[in-house]
């Protein structure tokens, strides 16, 4: 029942619908509102026509417009919409379902950026997607356009026809379309999709036949060549994933492109595959095995890749493509002018990689080329085997070239190719309205011989060249001069004049039309600025070349200017030189002006090597001026046969002038020297010789016999200064003022020379401290006459001084040392003295010390040549003197010969006082001096008056010394045999041996004599042994009072100073001494140093007074022992012990030797058994001694003295002995019968005092002299 009712109601509804459809026109606004409500956007409908057909309504809607807000991404208008509604399917699906949906004249404008942007939510977008993919089972589109806007760029797709079918999840469209900006005709396509409307997957297939791509190609290729025809055939597949195209495959076949340029350029694509994928915001393309043909080239294969960005800018990448086949294609990419320039260079090679960018304005290219070769074009050089990097942008570009091991094709520019190791260049091409400008802002050329940088610009027949040549030789530099551009004369002169040298750098500039050289109309300029160092420039064949030259050459058109701040014209320093050749021609004139400080030697050499060699050259060869000269020199050198004129003035300012032939130099010459060719002259030149002023006049001119120079000289000399500088040995003795005159005549023939020289002076104001016969006072006149005559081989020198001195010698000029010379003092020997230097002295009296010092200075400090004395060492010295003073001693009947032997100096001397042989080895410090004396007998030694005994010697320069004297006697002392050996050690001398042997006594010692920080010290260690010490002292006239006692001493002492500078103040060390049994008599021990130190004579004298019986005949002892410790002259002892027969004595204290002060404590302990009676008597007073002897026999006990203490103070000269205490003890004695003891008075009687000392002993009383 219910179903029947529903069927009835549905039938009623359909009937009503069929009745009301024709009246929908009146309801179009309500329908538009309903659609607007359903799809979320306002819709306008122009007209509705409706009816019922078959199973559902049929609608015809015209002029549908979507009225969107400005933010909406969709703009839609449809001219006519035909809809067949499936009524029952719509009821079932509860939405509009149509079986046919035809759209005619659809215009859809979609802003893709808005639909895909974040936050985009427009209902109309979803509604349309749902409509066309879900609601409509089938629809078609005819004569419609879809405009897609992306990145503000609109792309129009014209759809001629489209049939679309939706079957569930499958969606398929078939039709034809055309991209308006790419082609002029359409291609068929099929779009097959799967999935829902949000995630569609599928394939887009297109097939293009004879498509015309002119609109797109014309945008990409903006060159002058217009596209005449193109036919493109292809098949395309596009893979769609999730509603996005993810892969495209484009297969090309049988396509043709043609341009209307002069050569009817064409390209045929036979086959190829292009693979594309979306990348970033564009598309990435890969071209695989593109088979193409072009003018003259068939079946070429190329692989490429490309990128089409969102702005439809295409970037194309190529690799390994030959250049020549691409040139026709390149012609359509650039202007005709640029094409012509490319054709002129005819490039060949391989594009290993290239990137081309097309953006509608033109083309940009970046490419790397290998094996590139360019032909020369005009003056622009070509090259081959080059790699290049090309960058082009629209109407300009750059080419970076790099080549190795090839040639630069510069035949048109330089006349020959330039081989290179490496060449790199930057070329710039600029397309202008009046032609192509070619510039080369940087070309670097590197080879074994040549390195340069070049800049070039060529435009409208105007050539601009700037070349920077790096360091190279002159020979290499000449290879860069362009003969055609420079002109033949300039080119020829430079090739001859530039001989050698090093170009520091060169700048070559050319600006102008090459056909207009030498630019007399100032339409251009040629300049070559060349900085040359250490070069040689042959400016004229008759004159020396410029050498060692730092030169600036400026070639400007036909002229040449030369400036130099450093260099040599032969040897003249070119500190400031200017030369000019206004016109490089055969009749030109070279003017050289030198206004500079040049040396005289260089000026002389210039004249000798130039056109004035026989005149001024000869003059200046003899009169050689050294040092810098302020000069004005002018050389006028014609290029024809006219003579050269050299003239000038040379201002001398303290210059040395050397007369070469006689090897004589005058210093500090001041004045003006004038020359005109061969004649030189100078008046009143101020000069210095041997540091003294003098006047000099000279005149020189070429004569038949040779060049003759006369020189007149006069001087007023201070000999102190002269000898101090030139002969310091003589200067220590000779002083005063010498007035003299001299004359020199010098003749220089073609070979050799000869001269005569004379000098005279009476020396009235000259004094000499030399020993006789050289001694002289200022009141004495002692004429000096010198005559020298010589030639180029040798000179003979004769000198006479007064009446007792003469000298003669022969001086070879080559050796500059006298080969034969003799100095005679006193009587001249009547026999020849042989070759070499010899001295003879035959005088009545002679002071050896003075002569030794004088000769030492005169010989060792004589003028030298090459480090050796001009005189040399005397090989023989003969001495005879009746009396001779030597070492402060007087010797008589002296005869001596000194010989210079190969190994040493041998000195044999004999006199009344000595006979000895001395050998002084030439290795002074190595082997030293050996002295062997048969005897030396000196009565006394006296230092030379005024001699400083303490003068310090540099002992580090002492030689080793070996001295042996068989019999030495000094004054009255017989020293016996003396041996002394000294050897060198670091810091001074070692005393290896010091032995003195006299009868039964001997001293054996060794030590050191050192210097440290300027202070000398001496140390000696050794032993002294004597069988009879007293007898030894007595033999030296020193009566010490010691008798019958042997002695043994061990000592180690040192003091500040030399061995002969012994002193108490710095004396330090130790002495261990011992005397054997003997006795001391009451005598002064003056001279016996040991006893003066202890002042024993004072102690013995005291004890003798108190123990008269015991010490009456002396102080007998078994031994004496002790040690001394010496510290800065203070002799200290703590253990001096005397074992005497009467008692034992101990001493402690010191003696200060510098002050002679004494400070001792002495303890005397009597021996009881041997001296009891005396001791007892001493206890009361000496007067009781007799009674004590009597009591010795009868008493059984007695009180005796056990010890006595003394204090010894004062000085050695005045000792003060004082008793400071005594001890006694009682001893038991055997009972004996003794006489009665006499009465002892209370006070001692005066007549019991000791008797006075005998005069003989008083004379020997000690004086307490200090030890020294």
From TrEMBL:
Family matches, as InterPro entries: YhdP (IPR011836), YhdP_central (IPR025263)
Domain spans labelled YhdP central: 1-1216
Span list, region Disordered: 1222-1268
Pfam families: YhdP
Matches recorded under NCBIfam families: YhdP family protein
Full protein name: TIGR02099 family protein
């Amino acid at each position: 029942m219910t179903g029947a009712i529903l069927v009835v109601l549905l039938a009623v509804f359909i009937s009503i619908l069929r009745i009301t459809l024709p009246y929908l026109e009146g309801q179009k606004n309500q329908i538009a509102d309903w659609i607007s409500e359903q799809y979320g956007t306002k819709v306008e409908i122009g007209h509705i026509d409706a009816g019922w057909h078959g199973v559902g309504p049929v609608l015809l809607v015209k002029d549908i417009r979507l009225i969107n807000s400005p933010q909406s991404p969709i703009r839609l208008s449809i001219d006519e919409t035909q809809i067949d509604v499936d009524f029952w399917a719509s009821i079932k699906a509860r939405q509009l379902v149509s079986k046919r949906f035809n759209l005619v004249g659809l215009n859809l404008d979609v802003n893709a950026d808005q639909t895909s942007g974040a936050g985009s939510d427009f209902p109309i977008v979803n509604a349309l997607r749902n409509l066309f993919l879900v609601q409509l089972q089938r629809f078609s589109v005819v004569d419609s356009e879809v405009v897609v806007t992306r990145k503000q760029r609109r792309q129009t797709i014209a759809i001629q026809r489209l049939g679309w079918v939706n079957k569930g999840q499958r969606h398929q469209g078939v039709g034809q379309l055309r991209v308006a900006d790419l082609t002029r005709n359409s291609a068929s396509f099929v779009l097959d999709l799967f999935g829902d409307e949000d995630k569609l997957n599928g394939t887009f297939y297109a097939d293009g036949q004879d498509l015309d791509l002119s609109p797109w190609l014309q945008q990409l290729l903006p060159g002058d060549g217009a596209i005449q025809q193109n036919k493109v055939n292809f098949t395309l597949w596009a893979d769609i994933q999730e509603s996005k195209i993810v892969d495209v495959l484009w297969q090309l076949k049988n396509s043709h492109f043609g341009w209307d340029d002069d050569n009817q350029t064409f390209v045929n694509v036979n086959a190829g595959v292009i693979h594309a994928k979306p990348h970033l915001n564009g598309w990435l393309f890969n071209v695989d095995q593109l088979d193409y043909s072009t003018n003259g080239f068939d079946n070429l294969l190329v692989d490429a890749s490309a990128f089409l960005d969102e702005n439809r800018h295409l970037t194309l990448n190529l690799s390994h493509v030959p250049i020549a086949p691409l040139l026709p294609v390149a012609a359509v990419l650039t202007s005709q002018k640029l094409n012509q320039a490319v054709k002129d260079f005819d490039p060949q090679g391989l594009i290993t990689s290239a990137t081309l960018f097309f953006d509608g304005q033109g083309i940009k290219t970046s490419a790397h080329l290998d094996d590139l070769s360019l032909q020369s074009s005009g003056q622009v050089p070509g090259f081959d085997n080059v790699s290049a990097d090309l960058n082009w942008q629209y109407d300009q570009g750059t080419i970076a070239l790099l080549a190795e091991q090839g040639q630069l094709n510069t035949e048109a520019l330089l006349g020959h190719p330039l081989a290179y190791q490496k060449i790199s260049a930057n070329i710039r091409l600029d397309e202008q309205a009046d032609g192509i400008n070619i510039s080369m802002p940087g070309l670097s050329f590197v080879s074994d011989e040549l390195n340069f940088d070049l800049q070039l610009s060529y435009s409208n027949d105007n050539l601009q060249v700037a070349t920077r040549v790096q360091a190279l030789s002159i020979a290499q530099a000449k290879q860069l001069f362009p003969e055609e551009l420079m002109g033949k004369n300039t080119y020829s002169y430079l090739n001859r004049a530039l001989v050698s040298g090093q170009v520091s750098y060169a700048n070559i500039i050319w600006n102008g039309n090459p056909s207009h050289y030498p630019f007399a109309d100032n339409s251009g300029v040629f300049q070559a600025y060349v900085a040359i160092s250490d070069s040689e420039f042959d400016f004229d064949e008759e004159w020396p070349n410029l050498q060692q030259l730092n030169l600036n050459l400026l070639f400007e058109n036909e002229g040449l200017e030369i400036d130099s701040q450093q260099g040599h014209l032969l040897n003249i320093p070119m500190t400031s030189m200017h030369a000019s050749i206004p016109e490089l021609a055969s009749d030109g004139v070279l003017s050289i002006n030198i206004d500079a400080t040049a040396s005289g030697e260089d000026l002389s050499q210039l004249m000798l090597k130039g056109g004035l060699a026989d005149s001024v050259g000869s003059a200046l060869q003899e009169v050689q001026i050294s040092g810098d000269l302020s000069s004005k020199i002018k050389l006028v050198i014609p290029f024809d046969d006219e003579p050269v004129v050299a003239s000038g003035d040379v201002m001398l300012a303290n210059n040395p002038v050397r007369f070469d032939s006689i090897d004589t130099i005058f210093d500090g010459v001041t004045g003006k020297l004038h020359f005109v060719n061969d004649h030189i002259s100078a008046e009143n030149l101020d000069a210095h010789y041997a540091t003294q002023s003098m006047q000099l006049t000279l005149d020189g001119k070429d004569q038949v016999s040779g060049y003759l120079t006369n020189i007149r000289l006069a001087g007023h000399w201070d000999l102190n200064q002269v000898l101090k500088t030139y002969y310091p040995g003589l200067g220590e003795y000779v002083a005063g003022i010498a007035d003299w005159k001299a004359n020199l005549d010098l003749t220089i023939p073609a070979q050799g020379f000869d001269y005569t020289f004379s000098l005279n002076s009476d020396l009235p104001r000259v004094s000499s401290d030399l020993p006789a016969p050289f001694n002289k006072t200022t009141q004495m006149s002692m004429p000096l006459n010198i005559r020298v005559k010589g030639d180029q081989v040798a000179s003979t020198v004769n000198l006479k001084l007064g009446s007792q001195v003469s000298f003669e010698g022969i001086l070879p000029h080559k050796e500059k040392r006298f080969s034969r010379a003799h100095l005679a003092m006193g009587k001249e020997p009547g026999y020849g003295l042989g070759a070499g230097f010899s001295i003879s002295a035959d005088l009545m009296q002679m002071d050896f010390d003075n002569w030794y010092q004088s000769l030492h200075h005169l010989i060792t400090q004589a003028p030298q040549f090459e480090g050796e004395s001009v005189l040399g060492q005397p090989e023989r010295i003969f001495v005879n003197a009746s009396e001779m003073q030597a070492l402060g001693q007087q010797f008589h009947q002296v005869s001596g010969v000194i010989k210079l032997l190969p190994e040493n100096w041998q000195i044999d001397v004999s006199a009344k006082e000595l006979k000895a042989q001395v050998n002084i080895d030439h290795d002074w410090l190595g082997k030293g001096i050996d002295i062997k004396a048969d005897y030396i007998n000196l009565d006394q030694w006296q230092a030379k008056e005024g001699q400083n005994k303490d003068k310090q010697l540099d002992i580090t320069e002492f030689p080793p010394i070996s001295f042996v004297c068989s019999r030495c006697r000094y004054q009255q002392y017989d020293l016996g045999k003396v041996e002394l050996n000294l050897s060198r050690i670091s810091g001074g001398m070692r005393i290896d041996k010091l032995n003195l042997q006299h009868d039964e006594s001997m001293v054996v010692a060794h030590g050191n004599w050192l210097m440290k920080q300027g202070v000398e010290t001496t140390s000696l260690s050794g032993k002294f042994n004597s069988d009879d010490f007293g007898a030894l002292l007595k033999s030296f006239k020193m009566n010490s009072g010691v008798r019958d006692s042997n002695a043994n001493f061990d000592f180690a002492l040192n003091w500040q100073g030399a061995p002969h500078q012994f002193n108490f103040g710095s004396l330090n060390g130790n002495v261990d001494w011992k005397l054997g049994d003997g006795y001391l008599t009451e005598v002064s021990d003056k001279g016996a140093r040991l006893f003066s130190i202890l002042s024993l004579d004072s102690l013995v004298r005291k004890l003798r007074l108190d123990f008269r019986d015991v010490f009456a005949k002396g102080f007998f002892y078994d031994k004496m022992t002790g040690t001394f410790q010496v510290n800065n002259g203070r002799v200290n002892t703590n253990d001096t012990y005397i074992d005497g027969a009467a008692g034992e004595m101990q001493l402690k204290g010191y003696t200060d030797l510098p002050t002679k002060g004494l400070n001792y404590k002495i303890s005397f302990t009597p021996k009881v058994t041997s001296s009891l009676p005396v001791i007892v008597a001493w206890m009361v007073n000496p007067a009781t001694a007799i009674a004590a002897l009597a009591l010795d026999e009868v008493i059984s006990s007695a009180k005796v003295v056990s010890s006595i203490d003394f204090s010894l103070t004062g000085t050695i000269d005045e000792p003060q002995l004082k008793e400071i205490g005594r001890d006694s003890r009682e001893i038991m004695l055997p009972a004996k019968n003794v006489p009665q003891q006499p009465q002892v008075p209370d006070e001692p009687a005066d007549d019991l005092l000791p008797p006075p000392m005998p005069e003989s002993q008083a004379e020997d009383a000690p004086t307490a002299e200090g030890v020294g």
